[in-house]
Specification:
alpha+beta, single chain, SH3 type barrels, 72 residues
Length: 72
């Protein structure tokens, strides 16, 4: 099972976003989504952005993931 956690878009160039997830950056293709911009949170699987996530929801998910990860 894969878990897609929110990543923040830090750059966009030619249909690709650089997204920050935890402490690393990687590239993800934007062809499946519209109207995203630098600063938005998105769900990424592999190298594809699947959808946009509202900031409040992204922060809530990240807090839950980080709490569960560090408790173990």
């Amino acid at each position: 099972m894969c878990l897609a956690i929110p990543s923040k878009i830090v750059d966009i160039k030619e249909g690709w976003a650089t997204v920050r997830s935890d402490k690393h950056n990687h590239r993800a293709n934007l062809s499946l989504v519209k109207d995203v911009k630098v600063g938005d949170y998105v769900l990424v699987h592999g190298d594809m952005v699947l959808n946009k996530v509202e900031k409040e929801e992204a922060e809530k998910i990240l807090k839950m993931v980080n709490n569960n990860y560090y408790e173990k």
